[in-house]
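STRUCTURE REQUEST FORM
Protein name: ClbS/DfsB family four-helix bundle protein
Source organism: Rhodococcus rhodochrous
Requested output: structure tokens
Priority: standard
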Amino acid sequence: MAFGPHRKKEDVVVPASRSELISGIEKAFSRLCDDLDRVPPESVREAVLEGHVKGTSMSPADLVAYLIGWNEQVLTWHQRRAAGLPDEFPAQGIKWNELGLLAQRYYAEHQDESWASLRLRLADAKRKIMELVEGYSDEELYGSPWYGKWTMGRMISLNTLSPYTNARNRIRRWLRAL
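Status: completed
Returned output:
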């Protein structure tokens, strides 16, 4: 990963503890929200961003829908495990090599929601993720593999903190070009 004048190496930290995960998610989410606040209202449904499938475009609203989808998916994984149900990774009916289809599913699920509603729903999903993380110890989050070789904390980070950072980068690139 290249670190340019706007990106510092210390911004790219893979959390290895509960406190680092909480701090990383909070920081990335706050930064993302600051940039989402700058999206012009008339552009929230315009396909102005590079899509999650090669050669496609998406709107800022689609990007927020994608984040909601992944946050809620993380919560679903934990709910299913707590209920003793079999895992469905990454999501019901989707394989890891079909993540573009999953992105499209997330866009479609939220296509009729307002920008304000999407933003509230994302904040609520993130709040629930934080409650989930706060309910686990360092040992539970990082002490052993949870899915394949990945720890629970790493799976949460890969599907919250990392997408927040990626989304922020997409929004910032577009906003700079306006």
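Reviewer notes: Residues 80 and 87 are 7 Å apart (CA to CA). The beta strands are 49-50, 57-58, 145-147, 150-151.
Form closed.
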